[in-house]
Amino acid sequence: MSEWFELKEAEFNTALTTRDVNKMRDLFNTVPTVDLAEFADNVKDPSTLTFIFKVVKSELTADFFTELNDETQEKLLRVFSDDQLVELINKSYTDDIVDVLEDMPANLVNRALKFIPKEKRESVNKLLNFKEDTASSIMTTEYFELNGETTVEDAMKQIREKGKQAETIYTVFLRDEKRNLTGTVDLDDLIFADPKQTLNQIKNKEFIYTKVGTDQEEVARIFKKYDLNALAVVNNEHKLVGVITVDDIMDVMEKESSEDIARLNKVADMETPYLETKISKLVIKCVPWIIILMILQLFSTMILSSFQVVIAQVAVLSVFTPLLMDAGGNSGGQTTTIIVRSLALGEFDKKDIKKVIWKEFRVAVCIAGIVAIFAFGWIMFEIAVGIVKFEKVGTYHDWTWTGKTLISLLVASTLFVTMIVSRMVGCLLPFGAKLIKQDPAVLCGPITTTIVDIVTLLTYFLLWQYAFSPILERIATL
Amino acid sequence: MSEWFELKEAEFNTALTTRDVNKMRDLFNTVPTVDLAEFADNVKDPSTLTFIFKVVKSELTADFFTELNDETQEKLLRVFSDDQLVELINKSYTDDIVDVLEDMPANLVNRALKFIPKEKRESVNKLLNFKEDTASSIMTTEYFELNGETTVEDAMKQIREKGKQAETIYTVFLRDEKRNLTGTVDLDDLIFADPKQTLNQIKNKEFIYTKVGTDQEEVARIFKKYDLNALAVVNNEHKLVGVITVDDIMDVMEKESSEDIARLNKVADMETPYLETKISKLVIKCVPWIIILMILQLFSTMILSSFQVVIAQVAVLSVFTPLLMDAGGNSGGQTTTIIVRSLALGEFDKKDIKKVIWKEFRVAVCIAGIVAIFAFGWIMFEIAVGIVKFEKVGTYHDWTWTGKTLISLLVASTLFVTMIVSRMVGCLLPFGAKLIKQDPAVLCGPITTTIVDIVTLLTYFLLWQYAFSPILERIATL
What we know:
The structure is a homodimer. Chain A is built from 24 helices and six strands.
């Protein structure tokens, strides 16, 4: 809760308990609407909630309602009279109505739709049916559009008269006689311009717009790149159908990066804040991933199981398997993270794939070399100081320093292979996912780990069986 | 590169090769400045680069220069004449100059500082020395401030006259006689207002500002929460010292989430786009993490090494160690991700710690129960279909179904403990990091994994040695 609010909380609660409308109104004047909504979200009692709603100044009710969380909105909608519902709808922007309705149960949606005036209902219905996560799903239909031949003076007059209905007047959209979108004018340019100029004369040289079906992540990139306040959305006939404002884009940016973070870390995205999320929901967000990852491990379990005899004979080999598998997993994860992030930020496209692979290969060889050399030294050190002991069990009872060095070399060689494979797989999979139009963040991590685990274990045990073990035996018999 | 640009690329290259200034100017008129900068970033030859710079319309050079990447900026600065430098500086906003200078070598900075006019130099120096990642480091000192008693009519006049120097006029900042910040007025409210009203009468009821030292992540949260276009930054005397605009906030949001993603996935944040990053830099971003994680594994290596005799006797135990350790790591990672993300989004603060721990504990017990039961069934299945085989090695030669069931039970019991410990550690560490003012995203992952690995391996082998193995022996002798 914000500091503006904390100062007043005691007064607030008193006024609320005594139902002191005047005192409440006074306080409301000094508290930002969004903080008020945050307070209301914590009110459990529906009658107190409706009381608060009634006290909110009439011109702010729509704002206030929009800022409430889904649960509180639903509570209020259930107790609203028809009149209250009609009033609220008339005051709200279309995209806000859609945002609210999207998360409501069907019976409430139908009740609300009944009260939405016909001309607005069409927009609401259209927006409700638009594809999720596209430009159309975040646009508003209340924008300010003028003919490009209008003079600056006239434009200002029209803005004063009709601009209040628009969600933003900071960008004015221009159309020609055929209602095609032809450009945009920023409000500051309007203000600095000569009153006699036409809008076409002062319009932005950059004519930037997007199409209804564009992915919202791409829309966010356009906003960021061109530092926009608002962006036009056109249909296939190049007619303006809606406008996206920068505040919606900040929500998109946060949502998309939350999703990427969750997916890269093998947990489903939390749509609600942690403290508001039910325990059952948290469990459902986490358990499936753990179980899927456990099932995917069946390959490494199978390989380990089939080398049981070797492990029983040379138990020290089992000491290094987690180290090898983890190093591979971490390295693959690094690559996947870098590539997924770059793809999300639009840094490269499918056509860059060859460049990326060649670059990754060189990076992989460098990393593999450094890591293998370090690991050799590190394991020799672990052996020297006794972190790794060679017990007198199994086939080899007497471990000479030659044998111990060979084991370190075996681990280092396996790591060299693991590092290269993990980076190549970790970089190829996100591109593969993109090619088959799947989200690269979801499955690349687990699949990379699975593949790398298989390669690592097979390399490790086969290198031992067919290279290092024979060498060791030959040395022993010399 | 954008579609606007792609259409013209061929024409562009011809005009460039023939040094056709008029043709270039024509083309520049239709291409957004930011796309032009992107094109210039790919030009290697310095003389072509200066040619492009000269062709850019005089009123756009500052914009164009700001959009170039560090490398290209440096190239240009090196070949600029003193006159060119002075002109560029005069046209640029203070915060953009600072952004450029921050990444330049010291000799270039000093040369540039010499040419910055005295009154601007002070701001530049101040901004250069402000603490990184705070409100002060992203603010601009070109804002538009008026006395609150000014009338709307008069304000509009002053905006027209002096507003062009400000980075934004969409928010006008109000001060009283003592130059204290007293509020803000949005440009649209100014336009809709009665010309005779004073600014104080129409100012925003929400008076939102921030202090110079506030963390930029917190600033981004304020923007998002209150849907701002610009935010006032005040010093300790409550005087306005700068303004942050929404376009800078989008950069902050992207940078912060990139950092979180990188840290949570054990790789250093790439500050430059992948294809622009040198191979040596990519190696440096990745190798240290792999090596640190390898060193941290010394504890699990030590534990595994000390149970070598047990493994040699009951080799099948080693089949399940990676599965157990991975499940713990994944589960701890999930919790850390959720908690770090919630902390970053400001969903809860240190004082919520008890609530979070109690919630996490209940979630952990549920997850542990479900996962343990699933794992028992899954391992019985793996044994039944032969994915896990019980070879005739070591102490127990004849594995009866009782013995096999006991092994599954051992794995399931260990998982139960692992799941609870991993979630509790994964949730406590981020709070701990926050308490000692460290970034929770950096070390929590690796430390959680290390602790969970130790607990898991000890639980697994000790449960076997002191519970399951004695039970198995007693059953065998019955």
